[in-house]
Amino acid sequence: ETVVSLDGVRKEYDLGGTVTALDGVTLDFEPGSYSAVMGPSGSGKSTLLNLVGALDTPTDGDVVVAGRNIPTLSESERVALRGTRIGFIFQTFNLMPRLTAEENVALPLLFAEWERSRRRERARSLLDDVGLGDRIDHLPQELSGGQRQRVAIARALASDPDLILADEPTGNVDTETGEGIMRLLEDANDRGNAIILVTHERRIAEHADRIIHITDGVVEGIESIEQTTPEP
Ligand code: ADP
Ligand code: ADP
């Protein structure tokens, strides 16, 4: 089953005048696929991510996520879908400021109704994986930018979602941290999570299997990326 499919999607915003942010977008994202989205500022990349992440509804057309057509769902059904099937890595991280790293990572598992001790175990193991095993009790404000980004990634992976959405995940971190983040995404993809990554950096986009180029709300082209096997 396709993880996300968009069919003839149009998205308009009405703020005095009408802005058409996406127009006639038809795309399929298969299980385990890795797609990057590139395009100039204002081309509709964030709008696309908000639609596939069930954060917003299209003006026209279908957005089907994990077999559910987003426009037909209630707000609470969309919240449940997001909590269990989709992992978000957005630039602002959206970590809860009063929760520790461990509690932030465990949050999606609360939605998924995991029992407390299993939530704790899973959150600790994920924080270990991202190199923050010694920071589990830190609040976000006690962590560096790169560390917060890694907490956000651990949280996105917590419920083993069908789909991981990443908006400029390496945007605010140094090169080394950025490479670590890209490795974590690759590991997740190897385990079968589909990934959609928005970036303006070609070098980052080339980690994906294909690059979707968007201009003025229209898909201009889809470029396949040949992945070479790294030297052992
Ligand atoms: P990108 O992520 O590629 O920079 P966006 O999806 O954010 O592009 O924006 C696409 C277009 O939609 C832009 O013209 C932008 O100004 C407009 N837009 C985006 N979000 C809103 C909003 N909430 N209200 C009104 N216009 C918006
Ligand atoms: P990163 O490359 O991960 O963003 P930084 O250079 O920002 O790392 O931070 C280096 C170290 O300083 C980190 O290991 C972190 O523990 C510590 N640090 C950074 N910012 C803060 C902060 N606001 N409060 C406490 N420790 C911090």
TrEMBL record:
<dbReference type="InterPro" id="IPR003593">
    <property type="entry name" value="AAA+_ATPase"/>
</dbReference>
<keyword id="KW-0813">Transport</keyword>
<dbReference type="InterPro" id="IPR015854">
    <property type="entry name" value="ABC_transpr_LolD-like"/>
</dbReference>
<keyword id="KW-0067">ATP-binding</keyword>
<dbReference type="GO" id="GO:0022857">
    <property type="term" value="F:transmembrane transporter activity"/>
</dbReference>
<dbReference type="InterPro" id="IPR003439">
    <property type="entry name" value="ABC_transporter-like_ATP-bd"/>
</dbReference>
<feature type="domain" description="ABC transporter">
    <location>
        <begin position="4"/>
        <end position="232"/>
    </location>
</feature>
<dbReference type="GO" id="GO:0005524">
    <property type="term" value="F:ATP binding"/>
</dbReference>
<dbReference type="InterPro" id="IPR017911">
    <property type="entry name" value="MacB-like_ATP-bd"/>
</dbReference>
<dbReference type="InterPro" id="IPR017871">
    <property type="entry name" value="ABC_transporter-like_CS"/>
</dbReference>
<dbReference type="GO" id="GO:0098796">
    <property type="term" value="C:membrane protein complex"/>
</dbReference>
<protein>
    <submittedName>
        <fullName>ATP-binding cassette domain-containing protein</fullName>
    </submittedName>
</protein>
<dbReference type="GO" id="GO:0005886">
    <property type="term" value="C:plasma membrane"/>
</dbReference>
<dbReference type="GO" id="GO:0016887">
    <property type="term" value="F:ATP hydrolysis activity"/>
</dbReference>
<dbReference type="InterPro" id="IPR027417">
    <property type="entry name" value="P-loop_NTPase"/>
</dbReference>
<dbReference type="Pfam" id="PF00005">
    <property type="entry name" value="ABC_tran"/>
</dbReference>
<keyword id="KW-0547">Nucleotide-binding</keyword>
